[in-house]
């Protein structure tokens, strides 16, 4: 069930105007850097999501702030009553002498004033040209000052769109340039549903694809996601940031691709101490090693230390000689076994987003997909997908192949003026989709 109250241990999104930051709320008095400001989050625990907090200066020199719950975020334009304005700006010149206050006086004013509106009102009062500007220029001036002295933040509940936008603005390379429109196309093309098994190979999107697919599968369902990755540990920032329940997270099986395939083909993991499933561990040898460790530790005990605990351990190790001793196996060992069972049942879809050549990966993983099921391969450039397209065309075991390019342009929508953004990144990657026949 979706949480409505901020709880310690959750990931939260901190919003200040157009700036958003993903943060893990580890403890009640944790601090977070928002730009150059250091904000203490004490007091937000137990509050509703989407609550607004006012930043109260604790040390303005070091830009340290506390938070106070506020009913709404005040707008400078509504707080400051501008009574007169000019008809045009033709007689206004930027000579650097329009402001009567010196920089030192402005810094003192910023340290002494408790509200942003007081600072901006003082700047307006001591300006020679503000009241001669047009209404549009005055509004633009207030927006500029509001951006500089804004003192409100909002705590939001993370969702897929927010996390995608935050990670994309932070560094698109770390998520392979995947945008929210690309994620929606991947979910649609591979026909993600709340039932069945879905196979994902991801080699570096910070867990964004796994979070999107697991969100599409939903809670309290029978669907499972096999999340394969090339490294020892999977990237899970976006996956953890979604604050999924334990029931939902347990249905995402994150395994190393080589270890999982070894488990599937050989029936055992060669990284563990077992060579075959039927071969047992020599328990007597393990017990002898344990006793040597205990004796070695007992020799190092000083006179003032109590050796009772060591004696008890030695007595326990000497009892039950016929009982077998098995070391505790790591978690990834059981995840590999689970993934192997799911691979033997075949997957209902295949999604690949990789930084390496996708041809060998697709040839290996496509055998674990049921006939007539869809697949999607994402890459940030077209050439590897073109080679894969020609290779699949020659084999004839897939159909409905389509290579598409994602292109999206943002538009600025304002009252009485609308235009596309001039500076933007139009690279959204390429998608190769189709259906596996056999």
Account of the 3D structure:
This protein is 35% helix and 21% strand. It is an alpha/beta fold. The strands form 3 sheets. It has a 7-stranded mixed sheet with strand order 2-1-7-5-6-4-3, with helices on one face. A 7-stranded mixed sheet has the order 10-9-8-11-12-16-13, with helices on both faces. The protein has a two-stranded antiparallel sheet with strand order 14-15.
Strand line-up across the major sheet: 2-1-7-5-6-4-3
Q: So what's the overall shape?
A: elongated
Number of strands: 16
The overall average pLDDT, rounded, is 81
Helix content: 25-40%
Output the radius of gyration. 30 Å
Strand % is 15-25%
Summarize this structure briefly.
By secondary structure, this protein is of the alpha/beta class.
Q: What topology emerges from the helices and strands here?
A:
Layout: E1 11-16, E2 19-24, E3 31-34, E4 37-40, E5 52-59, E6 64-70, H1 76-79, H2 103-112, H3 116-125, H4 135-149, E7 152-156, H5 160-170, H6 180-189, E8 197-202, H7 208-217, E9 224-229, H8 237-241, H9 246-249, E10 252-256, H10 257-266, H11 283-299, H12 308-318, H13 331-344, E11 349-353, H14 358-365, E12 373-379, H15 383-395, E13 398-405, E14 411-414, E15 417-420, E16 430-436
Task: Note the main attributes of this structure.
7-stranded mixed sheet; 16 strands; alpha/beta; 438 residues
